[in-house]
Design a protein that fits this description.
The protein is α/β, with parallel strands linked by helices. It has one domain: Nucleoside phosphorylase domain (Rossmann fold, 3-Layer(aba) Sandwich). The protein is 31% helix and 22% strand. It binds hypoxanthine (HPA). The site of hypoxanthine (HPA) has 13 residues, from β5, β8 and β9.
Length: 273
Amino acid sequence: MEHPLNAPDVDPFEFAKRAADAIREKSQIETHDIALTLGSGWAKAADLIGETVSEIPASEIPGFVKPAVVGHVGTIRSILLPSGKHALVIGARTHFYENHGVRAVVHSVRTAAAAGAKTMVLTNGAGGIKPEWQGGAAVLISDHINLTASSPLEGATFIDLTNLYSKRLRELAREVDPSLDEGVYVQFRGPHYETPAEVQMAKTMGGHIVGMSTALEAIAARQAGMEILGMSLITNLAAGIQQTPLSHQEVIDAGKQAEERISALLAQIVAKL
Ligand code: HPA
């Protein structure tokens, strides 16, 4: 928890503003319109959505730490979209299981908001509960269940989470690919994968996707007033749904295999935002 955001007297929103100022200064882009967090399997989208005008190591931006996981990138990119808008691509996600605290988890989202972004695209690699989602399906997140027992909101901050994953943006995504299915994302703390019993619990609760990110970030994005699009790459069927044990390598491999296809899909969706 010795992350700079957790020091006494730190205001996480002030910190995000400082991070956004650093991005402005280094990228020379005054306002970013859209922000994307690219999770496992989605990284290539950054190359497809437009022209990279700046790439900054995350370690040079206040409050960002190097990603803990091999296979996750570590830079913040500014991309000029064909529409003339600018996208901020966050390749450095801090996961709740890294134990830097929830402020660190949502710092990138708050920074994106402070950089001007009105739309937050959150992507991840995740386990699927629906058996028909075999083979690297990309699915839309329709809602979430937050099982981290945490929140990025501090104090008596009561915020509505209805339509958190914008219906409008889901419909826009379906204009690109009408076959896109959707489901409820269940964020577990991790870093262990779920037990088959936990997957059954998630299913009984109404969940369809299990993972270790996104829900906390979406809450912070809503607090910041952003419109949210959430997408999961189903890298594997969740524990007990698939009969073989899960492995991080399997997740990485599935991501690599699907990367070209889902990144192209995401690029087409981003072009409509
Ligand atoms: N569970 C949680 N997180 C994941 C999974 C999973 O099955 N696959 C990829 N990330």
